[in-house]
Amino acid sequence: MPKVIDHKKRKDLIVKTALRVYDEGGLKEANLSRIAQECNLSRTTVYQYFKDVSDVFNYLVKTQTDKMLQKYLSEEWSKGNCYERLRRIMADIVVTADTYRPEIVRFVRSLSAIDANIENIVHHRTAKLRLFLSRLVRGGIKDGSIRACKSVETTEKIMAQMLSYGFMLAYFPESAEFSRSLVTDYVDYISSSGSSSNS
Q1: Which of 16, 39, 126, 148 has the most other CB atoms within 10 Å of its CB?
Q2: Which one of 1.10.357.10, 3.60.20.10, 3.30.300.30, 1.20.1440.230 gives the CATH number of domain 54-190?
Q3: Is residue 142 a contact partner of residue 168, using CB atoms and an 8 Å limit?
Q4: Mean pLDDT across 39-57
């Protein structure tokens, strides 16, 4: 009887191992051969899933943002007006970043070292999340809980502040608290009861 392989479990093992290998030895050690060895898999098997180390981290960005999106689309997050929902989601993202701080620091540093085009990768891989947040902003404008603003530009500002918080955690932890407060302060600012100047 042929062996049944759980491909998702195997991909997750490769990703977790890649983060650990990078953390222990830096970019020089983070190659698919070493990762395969650490996973007790053949190099050929690892190449069936990922073409290079950059591909491993792209997959990680995609799976994590997809998980976030699925979580925030659930019924428990759909109670209240759009501003309240956006505020709860942003607060949850910040708390989650704080909870998984060591993993986020490793991830941000590894992505930065592996691919200089990190901003484009993250932008591309977070497109669904951006679209969802943009819909929330538009819904908030419509239900009156968010002031009149350009929803796409406002969403980009929210995303930029979230990503900035991740980078601050990784490279400037002493300034991370300030960056953290900017995320929630901006969401408060765009509420219909927030400050009076336009976003």
Answers
A1: 126
A2: 1.10.357.10
A3: no
A4: 89
1-51 carries CATH number 1.10.10.10: no
DSSP string over 32-85: HHHHHHHHT--HHHHHHH-SSHHHHHHHHHHHHHHHHHHHHHSGGGSSS-HHHH
Which of 18-32, 110-124, 131-145 bottoms out in mean pLDDT, i.e. has the lowest? 110-124
Which residues lie below 8 Å from residue 194, measured CB to CB, with a gap of 6+? 147, 188
Q: Encode pLDDT of 122-178 as tens digits.
A: 777 788 888 999 999 999 999 999 999 999 999 999 988 888 888 888 788 888 888
The residues spanned by each domain of the chain are 1-51, 54-190
Judge whether 59 and 115 are in contact, CB under 8 Å: no
